[in-house]
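Case study B.
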Amino acid sequence: MSRRILITGIDTFWGSMTARSLENDPSIDTIIGLGTSDPKVELERTECLRADHNYSIVSRIIKATKVDTVMHTFMATETSSFPSKMLNENNVIGTMNLLAAVGGSRSVKKLIVKSSSLVYGSSSQDPTFFTEQTRRPSPAKLKIEKSIIEAESYVKDFAQDNPHISVSLLRFCNVIGDNITTTITKNLRKRVLPYLFGFDPSIQFVYEDDVVAALVFAANNSLEGIFNVAGDERIPWSEVASIAGARLIPLFAYATNIVSAPLISTGFVKVTPELYDLMKFGRGVTNSKLKEVGFTYSYTTPSALAKFCELNQLRKNLGSAKPEYKYHKDVETFFKHSPAVVKETVKTD
Amino acid sequence: MEKTSKPTVRKSTETKIVQLVEKSNSNSSNSIRTSDVDRWGRSESTREITRKIFDPIYSKYFRAEWDGLEKIPAKGGALLVSNHAGAIPPDAPVIMHGIEKELNRPVYGLADFWFRTLPVGGTLWNRAGGVTAHPSNAYGILHEDQQLALVFPEGVKGPSKLYKDRYQLRRFGRGGFVEIAMRSGVPIIPLAVVGAEEAMPILTRISSLSKLLNVPYFPITLNQVLLTPFLGPILGTLAYLPAKFKIRVLEPVYFDVPPDQPRYSKTRILDESENIRTRIQDAIFDMLAHRKNPWFG
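Model:
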């Protein structure tokens, strides 16, 4: 049976890397990518479309393309690359529009939502490992946390109201990798890591390849419910710096953004609001539920970090920056649709 | 049903670089780790330093003496339950040190999350084996890791009580420790400790200061009154009086219920909790009846 997938958030690392991975699967007939800007990587057969900031166009696309799987990867889980004003528009309104569109179609059988372990928060009252069912002990204060929690609540309601659609909600912990840019990778690439003086909490990473593999796994298997995605083990913040060979830059633990303003505003260290609590109390989630349904992680927390450092070091020594991919609409359209391009037939063995 | 298709990345300049350094085994995280901090935050090397510093206090100053240490299993999880006393309770380090020294196996001390909010001290507490007393943490230590965990069911009410109430056990919470032992399928080993009350007796508490400083209680101790003139205010607050420590290990309590149940009978939990509390209380009275004085036992 041929499958048709719509990936929303094709302009994010998550969406574009997943699309690229799915392109290799011959059983997937059509991949449509929807994003607010151009895709980040070169895509061979994904049809890319532009959407407005709250994805109001999505219902027309689903109706027209009759996709059976919808992947929601545009949830912002980091404020560093995202203006905070747009958080609500993107995460909450965007999710709402997407769910309305999926609910209104008769073709969609599966919905995969990318979320973040930010929903558990980070406080002194936390357990060392959150399971998918653990309720967060501290109330959400951050804009980004609130927006993701609200979006998740819409998804949960949607799953209840539409039992004929299989809904998987994947909560990713801090992602690290060669292609993804997060506040932590920005710091580590500069060989620095801010920390709050007197605190050394343990944190958890998941490698970007495992992120993509988990999304693909969700698309290929029926995973209903909530799943944490995180590498095994937790490592102390200070050890992150020592493995990465980064210098620890102390910040004052109270009123940090005022007291340590010179370090932060000059860009010497990068700190985002969601990092303050993490630097104080850390966060850990259990990953056993996803393992039990058959997923295998390629990296643990320390090996994910080591891999990131290795590739970073290699780039540095080669002296070449990461090749930036520039999307050229006319060229891409030519490759995809021009009769002049000789297409290789996809093997279906 | 189709099995996972691993993301096969296409060959581009970028991925060639990736392939260059692709290691056959990327999962050997042991060689990557630069510290020995475990998943609960405990570090054996930090513990070793702590033990070196604390051992003279344990054996020379408090002259800790155990009775029935053989009742603590050498293998497998067990929940140690003890009475709790002294303004800055010395019973936790004494018990943890004693077991690690005598039985050579780690003990995780479950305590209030308040410790985690302390800069520096909170980190040291965690590295030395302190873990937030959350049911899922206790389950992980006892059931998954099959280790020893120490818990004080009286909570803050134990060490914050005044000297005139010494050795009068407070309420044992809501019996959560019994439920966690049942769920983890491990025995409870009750401990009765004598000496902690006299090591730092509380004369009075100032509740307005505890609110102001965001601490669970603000005690005025005998130590402060006696020692501040000689040691100054900081050491005078932190130094213990040389009370003689005696720890008695009581018969372990095994529960004939299956582990991993979502719920256990509340009646049973409260009965068991009260039963353990009574046994510890009786043991303490017995030990006190045979004690000549607090300093020489």
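The first helix of chain B runs from residue 13 to 21. The remaining cases will be described in the next quarterly update.
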